Amino acid sequence: MACCCTPEPPKMNSKFRTALWIALIINALMFLVELMGGAYAHSSALWADSLDFFGDVMNYGISLAVLGMSLYWRASVALVKGMTMALFGFIVLGKTGYAYLQGIPPEAMTMGLIGVLALIANVISAVFLYAFRDGDSNMQSVWLCSRNDAIGNVAVILAAVGVFGTGSLWPDIIVAVIMSVLGLTAGYRVIQKALQERKEHQSLTL
């Protein structure tokens, strides 16, 4: 399908595919755990993290589907994923504002326990995906997703400690805002690289 001027897909597809499947399964399980745990604990940060897990499942699934395609199509899919990551940031901001209006402090113990479990899951995913962090925009996007999740999990644990110590919902809200910023900045970075790769591919095929 690719012409002689089209860069070949990465030769590490087999290893990358295996890493993606492992990360997809882990993230799917943690999405369900955090979705139910976030609803039970009334935690915006935990609920936001569950949405992040869901977004990652979709991202990993899409990445698996386009591994054998040309750079142009991999970059096009990465562009959509970057927009999705940025959209996630805006969704979290909206949910955080709603939680602030409700004014109900989350249940700290549940937050902390699920946060630790999610961190372990994301560290495992990050270890498998680390080798592909400097690949094309498609590979970079899955690495950024995994990295952001691990950072978000640490933040959720710190928020749980803060909620437990103060009885306030502010630690939960602050963490949710941090996670939204991570989604926005990572999305912007992936969008930029994807647009650059699409442009480079088009120039090579002219």
Structure overview:
By secondary structure, the protein is mainly alpha-helical. It has a single domain, classed as Alpha-lytic protease prodomain-like. It has six helices and no strands. The longest helix is centred in the last third of the chain and has 36 residues. It is elongated. The N terminus is likely disordered. It holds the Pfam family Cation_efflux. It comes from Acinetobacter terrestris.
Structure at a glance:
It holds the Pfam family Cation_efflux. Helices cover 83% and strands 0% of the residues.
Say what the CATH topology is. Alpha-lytic protease prodomain-like
Strand count:
0
Q: What is the domain total for the residues?
A: 1
Give the helix level as a range of percent: over 70%
Structural class: mainly alpha
**Spans with pLDDT under 50 lasting ≥5 residues?**
1-11
Largest sheet: none
Topology of helices and strands:
Blueprint: H1 13-41, H2 44-65, H3 71-102, H4 108-129, H5 137-166, H6 170-205
Protein name: Cation transporter
Transmembrane segments: 19-41, 53-73, 85-102, 108-130, 150-167, 173-191
Subcellular location: Membrane
